[in-house]
Amino acid sequence: MSQQDLQTVVSQVRRDILRMVHAVNSGHPGGSLGCVEFLTTLYFDHMKHDPKAFTMDGKGEDLFFLSNGHISPVMYSILARAEYFDVSEMATFRKLNTRLQGHPTTHEGLEGIRIASGSLGQGMSVAIGAAEAKKLNGDNRLVYTLHGDGELQEGQVWEAAMYAAAKKIDNLISTVDVNAKQIDGSTDEVLAMGSIQAKFDAFGWHVITVAQGNDLSAVKLALNEAAAAAGKGKPVCILLHTEMGNGVDFMMGTHKWHGVAPNDDQLVDALRQNPETLGDY
To answer: Model pTM?
Structure first.
């Protein structure tokens, strides 16, 4: 896709996120908005995947696992806009008997979702299993994950990171959304982690740092670099420095929109900042 086409998707995905969480006064807009550029580029310009022939095993395709499952609004919008399911289904977000639960689950059979990710810290472990299965099956496609920086406070992440490097899981590309914020404040205030890059370096990963994680060109370059680094004996980590609430001026620069929905007036303001491009649901 051209940069202009990707930007068109970005604007619409932001609108989808805002409208979904507003409609039920529930959900996580902050982190979702911060990852729009990354997931748009991944799904619309980078990964090899077939929305019309979704299977759980994904043989011959790149796989993606959302580990920080609370940012489900952006995941659902991306999947719908990529035609995994009809965009009208977004209107059921977090409603009774919906397939679009607050955290993604699998028993509803939602296309594009391969793991339940309501509990943080588990996505990398699952992705490692999928990556090893691809190796055993002679499948040369890649496995991608996304994590929050606050999520790295979960110990299971580091057990998985140690295993991936030790066992040379080099078909794995894990991205960390480094927005320095979580539900109760900054990550430094809640549980300072020091240098995330130094940690992944020490664990034996190939690390790529993206200073402008909300810039489409920078994201595209990083994903291409990561794919080029795969298959060389090390798992790959992309440290994506983003802004929580990106694209909505009153949501940026604070952790307070981690899990708070906009009211009616705030929704109007936020939507005014993000023009409709592909049609609202």
So the answer is: 0.97
